[in-house]
Every structure is written in structure tokens, then in C-alpha cells.
Amino acid sequence: MDLQTTIYIVVGLSFSLYIGIAIWARAGSTSEYYVAGGSVPPVMNGMATAADWMSAASFISMAGLISNMGYGGGLFLMGWTGGYVLLAMLLAPYLRKFGKFTVPQFIGDRFYSQSASTVAVLCLLVASITYIIGQMTGVGVAFSRFLGVSSEVGIYVGMGIVFTYAVFGGMKGITYTQVAQYIVLIAAYIIPAVFISIALTGNPIPQLGLGSTMTGTDLSLLAKLDQVVTDLGFGKYTTTTAGSTLNMFVYTLSLMIGTAGLPHVIMRFFTVPTVAAARSSAGWALVFIALLYTTAPAVAAMAKLNLHGTVNTAVMKGGDLYAEESSLKAEERPDWMKRWEKTGLLKFEDKNGDGRIQYYNDKTKNEVAKGKAEAAGWKGNELTVNADIIVLANPEIALLPNWVIALVAAGGLAAALSTAAGLLMAISSAVSHDLIKGVFMPNISEKGELLAGKLAMAGAIVVAGWLGLNPPGFAAGTVALAFGIAASSLFPAIMMGIFSKKMNKEGAIAGMLSGLAVTLFYVFAHKGIFFVKGTEYLDLIGGANSFFTITPEAFGAVGALVNFIVAFAVDKVTKEPPEHIQHMVEAVRVPRGSKAVDGAH
Q: 596: which of 178, 192, 200, 296 is 20 to 30 A away, CA to CA?
């Protein structure tokens, strides 16, 4: 059976499974629609949380970023994993005990203010919509390569699939669908890694294969990779950092607290029956997440080694990199490269007309490598590889069986669609439950609210699709901005709502608005969204990364600090919360008991 047919069958079966589960588990009440009736078992909720959490950025882009950045890419692993631990330990059990449907509802009730709830909805929408861009982009990448259609058509198909199981199934349908999606995506991630680890090192465990001796050499895989990339003029894979040390620290912190403030992940802890079940499901989710996150560094390193080995045979064999036959003849490039070239995510340009693909670092400061390259007549790097294709192309680069390649296609789509569904659920509940019922139509019937939720979901899917068709960047980069927005706006409000009984509504509202505003200003100035006649965008903030070398993707932690400072400053000059609110905050922190999840105000 040829590759394309195998992909159609595997992806088609996975989609049929998702739709079948959604029909079986369709929601019939607002409780089932928003929180799956609060009755999901901890292990299943752990799987669903892992699928919700491991987005296209985790499955598709994270290993690609680590592959490109080397050691510096570890900040994504540390930030996202550490943030989940922070969420599970400090926030989830208390939010579950509070017994509400959504994060804005918690903030509105805790800070005794519809205005606070509305501001939280605004922050949630900005973060979730930014995050969903990465998921739809990931859907487009996967479809464009594996189903032989354009990325635009792929996004339309993805919208249709999500619409089917999210609109009709609500959180109940999404939850059980995400359990199936987790099984698909984790199998799709680990099985190719095992194959490649055995081929390169003889060790079937990728996490151990990363440090094992390569077959046929006396060097470890990482040592060989360091040798290869430095010969090509790149920095050492095991030591290269992402900008300044301060930026790495702030970037990691931003991802951590952004994770803990993501509303679609927090909502998962409202779907279990008790506080103890919330803690248990958090632990299970961490186990399920760790399976992928501990495999990602091995996937990244092995993919990079295989890619260089395909293009530069001499460097892999320890020969003279710049010998005449060291690089791949363009006419002999493998089929996988030709297939990915059609997507536009891999590009080859023969700059010196010698008919070979020369892949090295144009900007190298390694004078030896640069001198050899120029002496050989090279006129610049001729191969461009988008970071988003590394995981998806890895099985093809390694010449794995067709069924493995098809499984990876299904896994990439599962990762993107599962998180997209969770984000859409958060957006839908914020609009229908927190705005329509909470502010504009408090007496709306349950049936009317359920209809409003489904209409809000449908509208959110249309917006998400449009943003996927017009993305501002590749998947993980866009997602990093979403984490920064959640870090600067929602996380401080949730933390202060749980652990500071004296924090009042004025402080919380001022903090959320200021944190969000300063972060968006810094990000938009870098991205060229502001328009000031006669002024360069970056002049508004004094130049690129002008605030202590911090990049816009890392600025969320600074925004969070501004949020905390403003909130406490305003709190000091305004009236403290009512007595019953302070007692409620103290009661929420007592570990015993929990409220039923009924969403009532």
C-alpha cells in the first residue's frame, strides 16, 4: 500500500473515532456542556488534560525549536512543565473547591464585581484567540503535507471536524474525544522515536538513546551532533543559549506562570467530582505529559542529526565537509524533501549554480568554517527548513515504514485539534456563561444558555479559522505570546484571589488591565501593529528588545510583575473587601470538602 493511501486510512479512522465519541457523549445540559457534569474519572481527566495541554506547539513545534536552538530550547520544556506543576499544586484544587464553571466566574465572584468578571473575559479572549492561531496553523501544516491539499483547505477541514464534536458534544464530548486523541498523539510521538533511537544508537529508549554511543562510532549522539553542527558553522548544540541569561530566565518564568493562568487547562479541573479527584487527575496528567516532554529532546537531536546526515554526508562520516562530494546533489535529493518543498516549509535555492544543496550557517563567526565555505565557492546557505516540520518530517527523513509516517500525521492533527477544542470551549463558556448569562441576560433559561454556548462556539470556530488562514508567525512563537498574555493578566488575579483575602476588586481590575496593556504594547511594538506617522514602530520602546534585552515572547513575566505592583498599590488606597468575601477566601483554602460544580452565582 502506498504512503498516501495509508495516510488517508489512518487519519480517516482517527477522525471517525473522534466524531463517533462526540455523538455518543453529546451534552444535554449546561453542566455537561461546560464541565462534563463534573463526573469524569481522574485517570481519564488526566489523559484529557494532557491532550488539552499538549498542543500543536508541543507536538509539532517544540522539538523543532529545540532542534534549531539546541540547549536554549530547553526553556520551553522547563517553562511549560514547571507551569503545569505550579497549576496543579497551587491553583487547581482551590479553584475546583470553589465550584464554578469558569475562570472569569471565579474572578467575578471572588472580587464581588461584574466588572472584574468582564475584564477577565477580555483577558481570556485575547489569550485564547492568540493561542488558537498556533493550533490552526499546525492543522494547516499537517494537512498540507500529508493529505495533499493546501494549508488553507486543511484549516477548513479542521474547522469542520472541531465543529462536529465540540459544538454538539460540549465539554463532555470534548473530554472523551481528548482521551482518544491523547492515545493517538502519544503513540505517534513515541513509536517513531523508538525506531530512530534503535537505528542511531541501538537503544530502544529515546531518553537514554540521547546520551548513548552512536552505532559505528566511539562518540555519544550529542557529542557527534556537536561535532557536526560546529563543522557547519553553527554554535554547539549542547551549549547555545537563547539570547541573554536574563531573557532565558524571564522567558521560562513567563511560560510557567502563563501555563498556570491558561483558562482552558484550568477548566479541566472543574470536570472531576471532588478536590481529591482534582489533585489525582493533576498527577496523572503530569505522568501523561512527561511521556512526550521527556522524549522531545531526543526527537529534536535525532531529527537534526538525520537532516544534516541527509544533506552533508561527509560531515556525518567524519570526512572533509568542504570536499567536492560532501553535499547532496539537488537532482538526487530524496522524495521526502520534494514532498515538503510543495508545502513551502522547506526551500532550496542553488545560489552558486553548482547543483548541490549546501547547508551551513551564513552568519557563522567560525572563521575556519567560513573560510572553507568561501574557498569552495559557496555563496550562502541554500536550504531553509521551517521549525514546524521537524517532528512531522522526522519519520520520512529516517525512512521509517509508511504506517509510522501515517501515524505521525494523525498524531499531529490530534494534538492541534484537541487543544483547539479546549480553547474554543473556554471562549464559548466565557461568552455564553460569563457575558450573556452573567451580565446581559441573567434570567436566561438553561436551554437558552446552552444554545448561546453552541452559537458562541460556532462563532469562535469561524474566528479561529480566519486567524489560522492569516497567522502572525509559526505555531510555537505565536503560542509563546499567548502564554505571556495569560501570565500578565489572569495568573496574578487568580493567585491574589486565592491567597490574599485583603485584595479588593479595584486592585484586581487595575492589575489585570495594566498587566495586559503593558504586555500588548511591548509585543505589538515589536510586531509592527502600531502605526504612528513618521515614527518607526520600535522607536516607541527604544529599539528591539530594549527592556533589558527581553524579547516580546518573554515579556509576560514583566507584565505579571506590573500587574501585582499595580494591584497592591491600588488596594492600599481603596476599601478592603467585605467581611463575607474574606471568610470565603479562607474557607476555599481549607483542604477539606468541595462544592458541587453547578456554576451558580
A: 178
Residue bearing the bigger pLDDT, 435 or 146 = 435
DSSP state of 173: H
Quick one: CA dihedral 80, 85, 88, 91, positive or negative?
negative
**Residue 210 confidence (pLDDT) above 70:** yes
The predicted structure's pLDDT at residue 502: 92
- Cα separation, 598 vs 594, in Å, equals 12
Q: Are strands 328-329 and 356-357 parallel, antiparallel or unpaired?
A: antiparallel
Name the nearest CA neighbour of 336 among 311, 366, 302.
311
Check residues 489 and 11 and name the one with the higher pLDDT: 489
**CA–CA separation, 305 and 507 (whole Å):** 52
Cβ atoms of residues 295 and 195 within 8 Å:
no
24's grid cell: 455518543
Angle between helices 170-201 and 275-293 (to 10 degrees): 30
Question: What is the biggest distance separating any 2 CA atoms in the chain, rounded to whole angstroms?
Answer: 81
Residues 418, 423, 425: CA angle, nearest 5 degrees: 95
> What pLDDT is stored for residue 535 in this prediction?
47
CB atoms within 10 A of CB 416: 32
Name the E strands within 316-411. 328-329, 346-348, 356-357, 383-385
Which of 113-122, 488-497, 589-598 shows the lowest per-residue confidence on average (mean pLDDT)?
589-598
25 pLDDT above the threshold of 80: no
Per residue in 290-334, pLDDT tens?
899 999 999 999 988 888 888 877 666 665 555 555 677 878 888
Q: Please give the residue that has the higher pLDDT: either 11 or 474.
A: 11
Q: What is the 3-state secondary structure (H, E, C) of 464-522?
A: HHHHHHCCCCCHHHHHHHHHHHHHHHHHHHHHHHHHCCCCCHHHHHHHHHHHHHHHHHH
Average pLDDT over every residue of 207-232: 87
Cα(195)–Cα(298) distance, integer angstroms: 12
User: Any idea of the CA torsion for 147, 408, 285, 128, to the nearest 10 degrees?
Assistant: -30
Strand partners, 356: 329
CATH numbers and ranges of domains, the chain:
7-302+398-471 (1.20.1730.10), 313-390 (no CATH)
Percent of the chain with pLDDT over 70: 85
Specify whether the CB–CB gap between 182 and 50 falls below 8 A: yes
Grid coordinates given for 75: 526553556
Concatenate the DSSP letters of all residues of 548-575 into one string.
Answer: TT--GGGTHHHHHHHHHHHHHHHHHTSP
Residue from 292, 290, 328, 323 nearest 307 by CA: 328
Rounded CA-CA distance 29/170 in Å is 10
Contact 181, 47 (CB under 8 A): no
Q: What is the 3-state secondary structure (H, E, C) of 49-104?
A: HHHHHCCHHHHHHHHHHHHHHHHHHHHHHHHHHHHHHHHHHHHHHHHHHHCCCCHH
DSSP state at residue 285? H
Measured distance CA(508)–CA(496) in Å, rounded:
8
The rounded distance, in Å, linking the Cα atoms of 126 and 423 is: 11
